[in-house]
């Protein structure tokens, strides 16, 4: 009986509350999407750095930003740290993807329960077609100077 009373309190009272709950869930979903995108960009940057410094001499000097401070190290010291950071980022991305799938299922269940349908306006449809033409950013790595 207590669980039924709790379930009654959890149930939305009117359409406005249902709409607010749905909007909140969609906002959470969008936040997860944006965090995944941000972390994927960061993992991509780590990959670029790894690919740039891997073929170089391990005793060569390089600089690494640690907590806002630029620190001089050797490639031999920096490369494993950058690889560990990239692996950690990839693990977080995997966990966020799991959370994303759970949230999608939760939203789908909520939509089915309350018979929610999303109507797209004409301007939204036009915006979606223009989003496909994304811009890519790259990193330029110059040749190593021979003045060591």
UniProtKB/TrEMBL annotation:
Q: Keyword annotations for this protein?
A: Chaperone, Coiled coil
Q: Where is this region: Disordered?
A: 121-148
Q: Where is the composition biased (Basic and acidic residues)?
A: 121-134
Under the heading InterPro entries, the entry gives: PFD2, PFD_beta-like, Prefoldin
User: One cellular component GO annotation, for this chain's record?
Assistant: prefoldin complex
**GO terms for MF:** unfolded protein binding
Q: What is the top-level taxon of the source organism? A: Eukaryota
Is the Coiled coil keyword given for this protein?
yes
Is Coiled coil included in the keywords of this UniProt record? yes
A GO BP entry = response to cold
- Family as reported in the entry's similarity comment: Belongs to the prefoldin subunit beta family.
User: Under what name is this protein listed?
Assistant: Prefoldin subunit 2
